[in-house]
Design goal:
The chain is about 0% helix and about 35% strand. The chain has about 230 residues and is mainly β. Strand 5 and strand 6 form a beta hairpin. It is built from no helices and 15 strands.
Length: about 230
């Protein structure tokens, strides 16, 4: 907000509120002011330290208040997050109508991994984002589509210790193709693949590629599709 055009607003104060939930429901939907962050010292004073955060899922919203209240900004909301420990936090992401979702993780992480998702067999890859260092591009790799459930990312500013999370490796798959015939007479085929979790140091950003060539020949491989 501090980098945005103030327009007709003559700055009065930042107004910061928070709310938390343990079960996904907010009591009466109430927001509580964070007095240590509601600052009137200047528009360029746009950071603060919130203390005594519990480990519930939390949201913050920030409003720029103006001398004329009619010019106040609309509230800006943070993603829902949970503070775990120093340098460790969780982000609630999704649902997503698309295979890839740009996720604001609040701070540039060293590692992020899927901590909780209702579908145990689901697999995801996370890549750096062109939006900013605070964003990740989260891609579902086990299905050609998005997801209707909420997903929890666990993020860390430092490299995670062995045993905190088990990263499955990517597997190269070479299987006989199941050929069919399309409605226009051209051949179609179905490819099965196992992409693994796609998260972690060894392979933290996945890109799926399917290549084909004529069976029992030395002809070169031709890329059929890539970057799903």
């Amino acid at each position: 907000l501090s980098n945005s055009d103030p327009g007709d607003c003559v700055f009065k104060a930042w107004f910061v509120e928070t709310r938390s939930t343990e079960d996904g429901e907010y009591p009466d939907g109430n927001w509580t002011e964070v007095p240590e962050c509601s600052d009137s010292s200047g528009r360029d004073v746009s950071s603060c330290n919130i203390v005594n955060l519990n480990n519930a899922i939390t949201e913050l919203r920030v409003t720029e208040q103006c001398q004329d209240a009619r010019a106040d900004s609309l509230p800006t909301l943070t993603p829902r997050f949970r503070w775990i420990s120093s340098g460790r936090w969780q982000i609630v992401a999704g649902p997503s109508a698309t295979t890839t979702l740009e996720v604001d993780v609040l701070s540039a992480p060293h590692d992020c991994w899927v901590y909780d998702f209702p579908i145990a067999a689901a697999e995801f890859s996370r890549c750096s984002s062109s939006v900013s260092d605070n964003f990740l591009a989260l891609t579902r790799t086990d299905a050609p589509g998005g997801w209707i459930e909420e997903l929890v990312l666990d993020c860390s500013l430092t490299e995670v210790s062995a045993g905190i999370v088990n990263f499955d490796p990517y597997l190269a798959i070479q299987e006989p193709l199941v050929l069919g015939r399309g409605i226009d007479g051209r051949a179609t085929f179905l490819v099965d693949f196992d992409a693994g979790s796609g998260l972690g140091v060894d392979c933290d950003c996945a890109g799926l590629t399917v290549s084909v060539r004529e069976s029992n020949t030395s002809s070169p491989w031709v890329t059929a599709c890539a970057g799903w």
